[in-house]
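Input (structure):
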């Protein structure tokens, strides 16, 4: 009896067929829902964990004021390094999650460089922008891409004291060059530095910079001479740059 009823129920159930347009609309709605869900989970998790990290750091500092044993102090230093690393990991996760969250927009290179310089907040390296009023069409996180490139110099440039940014128009495209006077990148590492996880730190900085730039087809390569400083060349395709307010030849 049960099988017969189940069979009848199955026979009476009508299948719903969607038109191609309706299927596309349904998929878009599903994607938007999942993106919203992912963003909410990510932001709430980051907020709660960072709050707890703040407490850990605070108690760690208090312990550092009362502990005299050098071995125990060394353990506290390791805790500090670990919490700093976790903070950076969450910062990188936030940057990655926000890539392409908004449409690309025209941005003045100088403004993005200034914002990145302020975020870096390091007087050890002088950053000189020579791009005038040039603008690029890029993801809104352009300043974060610059920040990660500048931070690479600060962390791995050795004796580096300065970074210089210039723009060179070449036919229908342009080259945005970011170079420093540090120790440079070994030839064997020129491609590896853009891979996620490469290096002594978190290994996300230059990987994120490349991902951000790629949104509008901007490529990045390191072409400096080892021992004479790093040289990052950003190739701007036709239609993605304006030099001194003038649009690039092909749009």
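Output (sequence):
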């Amino acid at each position: 009896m049960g099988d017969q009823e189940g069979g009848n129920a199955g026979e009476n159930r009508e299948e719903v067929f969607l038109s191609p347009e309706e299927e596309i609309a349904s998929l878009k709605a599903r994607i938007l829902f999942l993106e919203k869900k992912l963003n909410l989970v990510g932001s709430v998790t980051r907020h709660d964990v960072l709050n707890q990290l703040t407490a850990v750091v605070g108690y760690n500092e208090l312990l550092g004021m009362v502990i005299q044993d050098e071995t125990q102090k060394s353990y506290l230093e390791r805790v500090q390094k670990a919490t700093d690393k976790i903070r950076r990991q969450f910062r990188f996760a936030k940057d990655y999650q926000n890539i392409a969250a908004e449409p690309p927009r025209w941005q003045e290179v100088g403004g993005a460089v200034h914002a990145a310089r302020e975020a870096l907040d390091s007087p050890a390296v002088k950053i000189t922008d020579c791009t005038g009023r040039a603008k690029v069409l890029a993801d809104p996180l352009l300043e974060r891409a610059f920040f990660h490139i500048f931070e690479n110099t600060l962390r791995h440039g050795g004796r580096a004291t300065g970074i210089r940014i210039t723009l060179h128009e070449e036919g229908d495209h342009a080259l945005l060059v970011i170079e420093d006077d540090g120790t440079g990148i070994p030839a064997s590492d020129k491609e590896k530095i853009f891979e996620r996880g490469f290096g002594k730190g978190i290994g996300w900085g230059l990987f994120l910079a490349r991902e951000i730039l790629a949104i509008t087809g901007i490529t990045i390569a390191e072409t400096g001479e080892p021992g004479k400083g790093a040289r990052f060349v950003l190739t701007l395709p036709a239609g993605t740059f304006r030099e001194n307010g003038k649009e690039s030849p092909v749009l």
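Notes: The CA atoms of residues 46 and 90 lie 7 Å apart. The two ends are 71 Å apart (CA to CA).
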